[in-house]
Write a structure and sequence with these properties.
mainly alpha, 73% helix
Length: 144
Protein backbone atom coordinates (compact mmCIF):
# COMPACT_ATOMS: atom_id res chain seq x y z
CA UNK A 1 0.00 0.00 0.00
CA UNK A 2 1.33 3.39 -0.84
CA UNK A 3 2.32 5.91 1.77
CA UNK A 4 -0.34 8.46 0.79
CA UNK A 5 -3.14 5.91 1.19
CA UNK A 6 -1.85 5.01 4.66
CA UNK A 7 -1.88 8.66 5.66
CA UNK A 8 -5.38 9.10 4.30
CA UNK A 9 -6.65 6.09 6.27
CA UNK A 10 -4.97 7.37 9.44
CA UNK A 11 -6.55 10.80 9.00
CA UNK A 12 -9.98 9.26 8.44
CA UNK A 13 -9.63 7.16 11.60
CA UNK A 14 -8.59 10.20 13.65
CA UNK A 15 -11.47 12.24 12.26
CA UNK A 16 -13.92 9.47 13.13
CA UNK A 17 -12.62 9.33 16.70
CA UNK A 18 -13.18 13.05 17.12
CA UNK A 19 -16.78 12.72 15.94
CA UNK A 20 -17.69 10.23 18.68
CA UNK A 21 -17.35 12.65 21.59
CA UNK A 22 -20.55 13.49 23.40
CA UNK A 23 -22.08 16.91 23.03
CA UNK A 24 -21.25 17.92 26.61
CA UNK A 25 -17.59 16.95 26.20
CA UNK A 26 -17.28 19.01 23.03
CA UNK A 27 -18.81 22.07 24.68
CA UNK A 28 -16.80 21.56 27.83
CA UNK A 29 -20.05 21.87 29.79
CA UNK A 30 -20.34 19.24 32.51
CA UNK A 31 -23.55 17.30 33.00
CA UNK A 32 -24.09 18.17 36.67
CA UNK A 33 -27.38 16.32 37.01
CA UNK A 34 -25.79 13.03 36.05
CA UNK A 35 -23.13 13.39 38.73
CA UNK A 36 -25.34 14.42 41.66
CA UNK A 37 -26.80 11.37 43.32
CA UNK A 38 -26.47 11.71 47.07
CA UNK A 39 -24.52 13.01 49.98
CA UNK A 40 -21.60 10.73 49.21
CA UNK A 41 -21.16 11.89 45.62
CA UNK A 42 -18.57 10.65 43.18
CA UNK A 43 -16.46 12.91 41.02
CA UNK A 44 -16.93 10.80 37.88
CA UNK A 45 -18.05 13.58 35.56
CA UNK A 46 -15.31 15.43 33.71
CA UNK A 47 -15.16 19.03 34.85
CA UNK A 48 -17.53 18.50 37.78
CA UNK A 49 -15.97 18.25 41.18
CA UNK A 50 -18.07 18.44 44.30
CA UNK A 51 -16.15 19.64 47.32
CA UNK A 52 -18.18 18.53 50.35
CA UNK A 53 -18.32 14.74 49.82
CA UNK A 54 -14.57 14.44 50.35
CA UNK A 55 -14.78 16.42 53.61
CA UNK A 56 -17.73 14.62 55.21
CA UNK A 57 -15.83 11.46 56.29
CA UNK A 58 -13.15 13.47 58.08
CA UNK A 59 -15.75 15.58 59.90
CA UNK A 60 -17.54 12.41 61.01
CA UNK A 61 -14.22 10.99 62.25
CA UNK A 62 -13.60 14.22 64.20
CA UNK A 63 -17.09 13.98 65.72
CA UNK A 64 -16.35 10.45 66.93
CA UNK A 65 -13.06 11.66 68.39
CA UNK A 66 -14.73 14.59 70.17
CA UNK A 67 -17.42 12.36 71.65
CA UNK A 68 -14.67 10.27 73.24
CA UNK A 69 -13.62 11.98 76.49
CA UNK A 70 -9.93 11.35 75.79
CA UNK A 71 -10.14 12.68 72.23
CA UNK A 72 -11.59 16.08 73.08
CA UNK A 73 -8.34 18.04 73.27
CA UNK A 74 -7.83 21.68 72.41
CA UNK A 75 -6.14 20.59 69.18
CA UNK A 76 -8.99 18.33 68.12
CA UNK A 77 -11.52 21.08 68.90
CA UNK A 78 -9.55 23.55 66.77
CA UNK A 79 -9.35 21.04 63.92
CA UNK A 80 -13.11 20.43 64.18
CA UNK A 81 -13.86 24.16 64.10
CA UNK A 82 -11.71 24.64 61.02
CA UNK A 83 -13.09 21.53 59.34
CA UNK A 84 -16.71 22.53 59.90
CA UNK A 85 -16.07 25.99 58.49
CA UNK A 86 -14.49 24.47 55.39
CA UNK A 87 -17.30 21.90 55.09
CA UNK A 88 -20.05 24.53 55.29
CA UNK A 89 -18.35 26.63 52.60
CA UNK A 90 -17.93 23.56 50.38
CA UNK A 91 -21.57 22.55 50.84
CA UNK A 92 -22.77 26.03 49.93
CA UNK A 93 -20.56 26.04 46.84
CA UNK A 94 -21.83 22.60 45.75
CA UNK A 95 -25.47 23.58 46.23
CA UNK A 96 -24.94 26.81 44.30
CA UNK A 97 -23.15 24.85 41.55
CA UNK A 98 -26.12 22.52 41.00
CA UNK A 99 -28.67 25.32 41.37
CA UNK A 100 -30.36 23.93 44.48
CA UNK A 101 -32.92 26.35 45.83
CA UNK A 102 -32.83 26.94 49.55
CA UNK A 103 -36.02 27.39 51.49
CA UNK A 104 -33.94 28.90 54.26
CA UNK A 105 -33.34 25.75 56.28
CA UNK A 106 -29.84 25.03 54.98
CA UNK A 107 -28.43 28.55 55.22
CA UNK A 108 -30.00 29.21 58.60
CA UNK A 109 -28.65 25.96 60.03
CA UNK A 110 -25.21 26.47 58.49
CA UNK A 111 -24.99 29.95 60.03
CA UNK A 112 -26.02 28.53 63.41
CA UNK A 113 -23.44 25.74 63.13
CA UNK A 114 -20.65 28.19 62.31
CA UNK A 115 -21.62 30.37 65.25
CA UNK A 116 -21.86 27.46 67.69
CA UNK A 117 -18.61 25.84 66.59
CA UNK A 118 -16.83 29.12 67.20
CA UNK A 119 -17.98 28.87 70.82
CA UNK A 120 -18.69 25.35 72.08
CA UNK A 121 -18.28 22.49 69.60
CA UNK A 122 -20.26 20.10 71.81
CA UNK A 123 -23.59 21.77 71.05
CA UNK A 124 -22.86 21.91 67.33
CA UNK A 125 -22.21 18.20 66.70
CA UNK A 126 -25.85 17.17 66.24
CA UNK A 127 -26.46 20.21 64.08
CA UNK A 128 -23.49 19.34 61.87
CA UNK A 129 -24.95 15.87 61.33
CA UNK A 130 -28.32 17.47 60.47
CA UNK A 131 -26.59 19.84 58.05
CA UNK A 132 -24.97 16.87 56.29
CA UNK A 133 -28.40 15.22 55.98
CA UNK A 134 -29.96 18.37 54.50
CA UNK A 135 -27.05 18.73 52.07
CA UNK A 136 -27.47 15.13 50.89
CA UNK A 137 -31.22 15.53 50.45
CA UNK A 138 -30.83 18.72 48.43
CA UNK A 139 -28.17 17.17 46.19
CA UNK A 140 -30.40 14.13 45.55
CA UNK A 141 -33.34 16.44 44.89
CA UNK A 142 -31.46 18.29 42.17
CA UNK A 143 -30.44 15.01 40.53
CA UNK A 144 -34.06 13.90 40.11
Amino acid sequence: MSRSIRWLILLLILAACRETRSESERDGAPDVAAGAGGAELKDDEPGVEFEAPRLIPSIRAQIIELENAEGATEGSLAAFRNGVGTLVSAMRADLDRVGATDTGDFHALSDTVRHQVAGDAGDAISRVERLIEIYGAKMRETAD
